[in-house]
Amino acid sequence: MNDFLIIIPAFNEEENMVSVIGTLSRLNKPFDIVIIDDGSTDLTAQKANECGADVIRHPTNLGYSAAIQTGFKYAKKKSYPYVIFFDGDGQHDSSNISDMMEAIQLENVDVVIGSRFLQKGNMKIGFSKKVAINFFQHIIHLTTNKCITDPTSGFKAYKAKVYEKFTKSSEFFYDLPDSNFIIDILLRDLNILEIPVNMFNRQYGKSKIHTTGLKPVIYMAQTLLSILIVVIKKKKIVRIGGDLN
Predict the structure, then answer these.
(1) Summary mean pLDDT of the chain
(2) d(Cα 204, Cα 189) in Å, to the nearest integer?
(3) DSSP labels for 69-138?
(4) Can you give the pLDDT at residue 160?
(5) Reported pTM
(6) What gap in Å lies between CA 87 and CA 48, rounded to an integer?
(7) CB-based contact 88:20 (threshold 8 Å)
(8) How far apart are CA 110 and CA 197, in angstroms?
(9) Residue 109, class by beta-carbon neighbours within 10 Å (0-12 exposed, 13-18 middle, 19+ buried)?
(10) Total domains present in the chain
(11) Beta bridge partners of 107
(12) Which residue range(s) make up the domain with 143?
């Protein structure tokens, strides 16, 4: 077993599995790979198995948040010191894995976020998503006084002392863990480092997160509610003399 575990949440990504796992395997880096198949109805799990990756399957589609927590629980069970989340849709650039591995091992870093906005990349972002990203940048700064350039990035690395906290359902209650999760981490006085990464638009399949119609509005409202819960929870713990850590 290696010190690093790359966790790939996937739902109906059979067209991308071979490419995603292949690009990672060709790096010849000291990490293991696990696919969290979130109830796919296609050949996602079969393709991943054929590529030699370990696969954990949800019996039904439980959502991205559940896939993340399953990854955390698997890593804790195996006692991995570090985990890296990597998208199964081909949008993350495997050439940045080495940078993520190096950054998360720094002494005063607890979480690393791969930001597409710290360098010019190939990914095109729609107007509604740009609005949401800018909005949550301001919310994070307002609640934590910290600047996070890419609050919706799924390309993240965690040390064990962080991800193990969120294996408990009471600590990880998020429907979509984006800005709300980042705020929770920062309010625990944990250190987040952003590093520049490249991202691509997906080549096959459709995004599981809707970016048209009322869906972005609903997403922003749900995230704001979750942020409110996080802030109230933090104030309650501080008031009674508890410890966020």
Answers:
(1) 87
(2) 39
(3) HHHHHHHHHHT-SEEEE--TTS-B-GGGHHHHHHHHTSTT-SEEEEETTSS--S----HHHHHHHHHHHH
(4) 97
(5) 0.87
(6) 14
(7) yes
(8) 18
(9) middle
(10) 1
(11) none
(12) 4-239
Q: In angstroms, rounded to a whole number, what is the distance separating the alpha carbons of residues 245 and 239?
A: 15
**Contacts (Cβ under 8 Å, ≥6 apart) of 153:** 113, 114, 115, 116, 197
On the question of pLDDT at 122 being above 60, the answer is yes
Per-residue model confidence as pLDDT tens digits over 54-112 = 999 999 999 999 999 999 999 999 999 999 999 999 999 999 999 999 999 999 999 99
* Residue 244 covered by a domain: no
Q: In whole angstroms, what is the distance from residue 67 CA to residue 55 CA?
A: 12
CATH code (residue 172):
3.90.550.10
DSSP reduced 3-state for 147: coil
Closest CA to 76 of 192, 164, 205: 164
